[in-house]
UniProtKB/TrEMBL annotation:
Organism: Acetobacterium bakii
Annotated transmembrane regions: 21-42
Keyword Transmembrane on entry: yes
Record protein name field: Sortase
InterPro entries associated with the record: Sortase, Sortase_D_1, Sortase_dom-sf
Length: 218
């Protein structure tokens, strides 16, 4: 009887060890999967922003054919420095051209579209910036319900002001992609600050109307 019990124990012992080893692997794998899920959800806006920037820089916008420039669906996107529309805000007397890009050379001529944010009608965050001492001097006077219009080469888009936010210049959360379309108007703050202003002032607007698939459905 003792031998039978001993044999039975010896036969089952390796199986128990295998089960223990298997159980030890479950916890790390579960923890890794949970970490990846949390990381993906938390970093989704940054991932979308990176893809948006890659599209702007890596996609060929136009092709040459027999000496003529042929516009493709993706070629409808404005190139850097190109004027592609006009922003109108009747409430504060703004009528300004919109250029692709927001470097100083562009902002000295008008409003600039943040190179990498969505274009009007693309269903995400459309970021338009201008100087606080030129086009956006009176941006702080806008209140919920005021209308902002973007007339672009792809059509007319109408937005309604929702709210405003003041934040430090190093905080980039308001220029990241959004799950739905919003128009973000951005300028330096305080408006009367002398020198390089430490903060930013934005106005967030909701899309009211505009054409669908305006930029080739891309």
């Amino acid at each position: 009887m003792k031998n039978e019990k001993t044999n039975s124990y010896n036969e089952s012992s390796p199986k128990k060890k295998k089960r223990r080893v298997g159980a030890l692997w479950i916890a790390p794998i579960f923890l890794l999967c949970a970490t990846l899920i949390v990381f993906t959800v938390a970093c989704r806006p940054y991932i979308d922003f990176a893809f948006s920037m890659a599209r702007m820089f890596l996609v060929d916008e136009r092709i040459e054919y027999n000496g003529e420039t042929i516009t493709t669906a993706q070629g409808e996107f404005p190139s850097f420095g190109e004027e592609f529309g006009k922003i109108t805000i009747d409430k504060i007397g703004v009528v300004s051209p919109i250029f692709q890009g927001d470097v100083e050379a562009i902002l000295s001529k008008g409003a600039g579209h943040f190179y990498g944010s969505a274009l009007p009608g693309e269903g995400s965050n459309v970021v338009i910036s201008a100087h606080r001492n030129t086009q956006f001097t009176r941006l702080g006077e806008l209140v919920p319900g005021d209308v902002v219009t973007l007339d672009t080469t792809a059509g007319k888009f109408v937005y309604e002001m929702q709210d405003s936010v003041i934040f430090p210049d190093y905080d980039e959360q308001y220029i990241l992609s959004t799950p739905g379309e919003v128009l973000t108007l951005l300028t330096c703050y305080p408006f009367d600050f002398i020198g390089a202003a430490p903060d930013r002032y934005i106005v967030r607007c909701q899309l009211i109307s505009g054409p669908e698939n305006a930029w080739g459905g891309v």
